[in-house]
Design goal:
- 2 copies of one chain form a homodimer.
- In chain A, about 20% of the residues lie in helices and about 25% in strands.
- By secondary structure, chain A is of the alpha/beta class.
- Chain A is globular and about 45 Å long.
- Chains A and B meet through strand 13 of A and strand 13 of B.
Chain lengths: ~260, ~260
């Protein structure tokens, strides 16, 4: 298997002969303003451009959308991904959104597992910031939406067990998923995005350390860094912390466009 | 005026000819276990000893207790501080606790201001972590207590205006206090203490930057670092961030026992 970071939470995972596109956010650089009520209001989103062409990004066998926040699935993705693409989502609500957008083959991932050829996908849970912080934020903005997020575990007899934690803080759900599936490879969204009043809504370096302690033999790939204005963790800072805490070799910090063979 | 950091949130402030002891946590090194359900369970509290004798620490004119959490006022403080000491607290509840402990001269600081000689003390508000995180934590522990905290502003015609923010995250209360009082000197508790499930309950480096942006002409003194097991920010990391963000000279990071003249 290998993982190619495209940008932010968008990754392409090659697994048991199939290519999965995770969380396609395909807008051009800086076409959105900063998220309101967050840090770094002088930055625009996405903070960087795509490292490869959209045509190349969407040449996959399936798409996994961990949740429908705009930096994980945007209007460009809605437009350019072929409507007959296999789409995996967390809920019937998200499935309906994609079907409304014209997608024909949308499937909800289940905790009990669903099959895609010889690969089984299991839904895992997460907490997108403590309590109702995300919902409070959306109320403040006057937009609809939910704090619901999923992670996904991919299993195949000939492959490493692969866990995508999704947009979650370190919480019992993540501990449970690690205990239950004992993943060999973990993809973390670890850019430490925060609202001004409230604390992190995804992991940062301290939480990466907790994941490392819980899964000391796993390869941990950290992405969703340096692309959204309210992400406070830089790759430089994360790398220094990895070195300081003895996680070198276990925790990897790919650049945009970089492929990591596993 | 000057500020001498004793250890953690405990500081002695000399102001308009009077000495104030802030948040006396006077226990010996490592006599308490790590706070449950927090990071770094292998560490004991306080993580370091007192840099000077208790006799020296309690030679003051008054004590300010921002709130009654044990790392701000402990059983040693209850025992060794003279019972006729002037004690300033945030509420009638906290006043009752001190009076039960034998203190005779306890006064509640008010938002409208109270006088202590020619110094006026104003109560300010804070948020000790977002929402009910602290109360949820105490429920989990089965202990009584509250998330209520105060900050205090000290004013005197011949002195700089001094703002002690207290155990608070960056929030509207802190913004309001800075706008209202335009402090020349700000004492922050900035050790980034956190519960495992939940985010920060006091400021860390990102929040120090917000305070700096809100009060660019103030001297900001950062304490409450490297003394509690669940404080995730180190002085080294904070100093690097101060340098990186151009806050050198404005944000100071005293060592335990160090006096900063202002």
């Amino acid at each position: 298997m290998n993982i190619r970071l495209i940008r932010s939470a968008c990754n392409i995972v090659t697994y048991a002969g199939k290519k999965f596109l995770i969380d396609p956010w395909l807008s051009d650089k800086a076409v959105w303003p900063a998220f309101p009520f967050t840090y770094n209001q002088d930055k625009q989103n996405p903070m960087v451009g795509l490292p490869v062409s959209i045509d190349e990004i969407i040449k996959v066998d399936a798409v996994i959308v961990t949740h429908m926040h705009p930096d994980h699935f945007d209007d460009v993705a809605m437009k350019v991904i072929p409507k007959d693409m296999k789409m995996f989502v967390q809920s019937e609500v998200d499935a309906a959104t994609l079907k409304d957008g014209g997608f024909k083959d949308v499937e909800v991932v289940k905790e009990s597992g669903i099959n895609f050829g010889d690969i089984t996908l299991y839904k895992t849970l997460g907490e997108h910031g403590r309590g109702d912080i995300v919902e409070d934020y959306m109320k403040k903005l006057g937009v609809s939406g939910t704090k619901e997020v999923m992670g996904v575990v991919l299993k195949n007899p000939n492959e490493k067990t692969f866990y995508i934690a999704g947009d979650t803080i370190w919480c019992e759900y993540v501990q449970d998923a690690i205990s239950k599936y004992n993943p060999d490879v973990i993809l973390l969204f670890a850019g430490y995005a925060q609202f001004v009043y409230g604390g992190p809504i995804i992991m940062g370096k301290y939480e990466v350390l907790e994941v490392f302690k819980a899964a000391p033999n796993a390869k941990i790939i950290t992405t969703h860094l340096e692309t959204v204005n309210h992400g406070l963790l830089t790759r430089k800072e994360l790398k220094e912390y990895i070195s300081e805490k003895g996680m070198t070799g276990n925790v990897l910090v790919p650049d945009d466009g970089e492929t990591i063979a596993l």
